[in-house]
Amino acid sequence: MVFLFVVIIAVVLSGVLLMIATETAGRSGKWGLNLNSIWDVVAGKGLLRKVTCPKCGREQERRRKPVSLTEFLRGGWTCPDCGTSMDKWGKART
Question: Quick check: is 6 in a domain?
Answer without folding.
Answer: no
